[in-house]
Structures are given as structure tokens and as C-alpha cells.
Q: What sequence folds into this?
């Protein structure tokens, strides 16, 4: 699979919608260690000092609608797989539904954003590799305070070569896990079970904010067949939530 590297860019997601990448046959990936205007969920920006974070977007042939909700969740498992490959035996990060990657202390260290574009699925990943991004830093008023991966994998990610190698491994892991979702069957069902086991949100108390602005507490029960979070609230009963419905989730303490 083709994996391109650029020294600096605005956003790898945006670049893949522009020539020459907008007509390039998927799958392929683009990554950088210096992204200046990255995108996050719920309007947040993803930005860090040059060399301190990895930004990667993988383009994948547009899948059918029946399992499309699982691709954003599958990227989170690919991040765990990449960590396991570059640092065998090290403790893995945690997953918060739908696809935030958390440190062992519960701070966000990676975010994922998946979009559809011109017959392709674009999976963008931002990984904070070194240091912290503080809330309120100029231009990042909506950003969460982020931890980094260097505490767990500092030796592996100590230089640019190691960080680029991690990016290449991650791109290949995303492609591999997307192929499993594409094909369905028992491998996909195993992926679903594996996600549920690794998702800290399942079994936790969550706070939900609806598109209309209503807020309520609920208990997260599991993940439904299309990737939605199943929750229970005393007044609303059992129901499923799309990613946009969950404003805040408190993962189980580890």
C-alpha cells in the first residue's frame, strides 16, 4: 500500500480531498509530523508543535452501508495493534467509545475522525506523541488536555525515524482491520467482540447530551450490531446512541 510522507501540511484529511490525491485510487495513506490545522470531533482542533504528534489519513474504497458504522470504531483497535507491534509487551492504551484513545490515567492521547469523500472513506488519526497539549493554548480553546504516548513508548518514539515508522505501522494496521470489516463473517464478529472487551465505556456511567441540548445520565450496556452505544436510562429505557449524541463519557477507573 502506498504511504506518502510530507514535512508539513494544514490537514492530512483536507489534503486527500485535493489534487493529486482526490483522484488517486484507494487504498493509500498520507502522514506528517507537522500538521498545522487538524480537525477533531465536535469542532475541536488538533494541533501541536512540529514533530510532537503524528497526523495520518488513510483513504479506503467506500464500503457498503451495512457495516459502515464500524469503520470508525475499528480504527481504534488498529491504534492498539500498532502500539503492540512497535512496543511488544508494553501496556496498551485504552479505548473510549466511539474511538478516543486514552492513557492509563484517562487522558486523551489520540483522536480519530472518519469521513466519506467522493466514493472513498477517509480515516484520519491524530496521535500526541510527545508532551502535552494544554486546554486554552492559543487557538485551542476547545481542545481537551492531552497526554502523550512517550511515557509508555518513549524509547520507540524518541526520534523522527521511530515516529514515522509508527505511522507506517499504523497505516498498515488500519488497512488490515478495514479489510476484516469489509469481508464480514467470523473475523468481523471477533473484531466486534474484541472492541467490546477493550472499550472502557461499556459498563460505565455516561452523561449524554442530545442534539436538542437535553442532558441525562445513563448506563452503557454494550455496542449494537451497527456500532452504536447501547445505554439505559431510568426515564428513557434502553436505547442506542450515535457518536454525535454522546457529549461526555466517564470510563471505568483502571
A:
Amino acid at each position: 500500500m502506498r504511504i506518502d510522507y510530507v514535512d508539513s501540511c494544514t490537514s492530512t484529511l483536507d489534503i486527500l480531498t485535493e489534487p493529486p490525491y482526490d483522484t488517486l485510487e484507494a487504498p493509500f495513506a498520507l502522514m506528517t509530523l507537522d500538521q498545522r490545522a487538524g480537525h477533531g470531533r465536535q469542532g475541536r482542533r488538533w494541533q501541536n508543535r512540529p514533530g510532537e504528534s503524528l497526523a495520518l489519513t488513510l483513504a479506503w474504497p467506500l464500503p457498503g452501508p451495512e457495516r459502515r458504522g464500524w469503520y470508525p470504531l475499528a480504527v481504534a483497535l488498529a491504534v492498539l495493534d500498532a502500539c503492540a507491534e512497535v512496543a511488544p509487551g508494553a501496556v496498551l492504551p485504552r479505548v473510549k467509545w466511539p474511538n478516543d484513545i486514552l492513557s492509563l490515567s484517562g487522558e486523551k492521547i489520540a483522536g480519530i475522525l472518519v469521513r466519506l469523500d467522493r466514493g472513498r472513506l477517509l480515516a484520519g488519526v491524530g496521535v500526541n506523541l510527545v508532551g502535552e497539549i494544554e486546554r486554552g493554548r492559543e487557538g485551542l480553546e476547545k481542545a481537551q488536555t492531552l497526554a502523550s504516548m512517550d511515557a509508555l513508548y518513549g524509547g520507540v518514539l524518541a526520534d523522527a525515524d521511530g515516529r514515522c515508522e509508527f505511522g507506517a505501522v499504523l497505516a498498515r494496521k488500519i488497512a488490515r482491520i478495514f479489510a476484516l470489516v469489509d469481508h464480514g463473517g467470523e473475523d468481523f464478529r471477533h473484531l466486534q467482540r474484541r472492541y467490546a472487551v477493550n472499550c472502557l465505556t461499556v459498563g460505565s456511567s455516561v452523561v449524554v447530551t442530545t442534539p436538542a441540548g437535553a442532558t441525562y445520565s445513563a448506563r452503557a450496556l454494550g455496542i449494537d450490531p451497527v456500532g452504536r452505544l447501547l445505554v439505559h436510562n431510568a426515564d428513557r429505557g434502553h436505547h442506542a446512541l450515535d457518536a454525535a449524541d454522546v457529549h461526555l463519557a466517564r470510563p471505568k477507573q483502571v
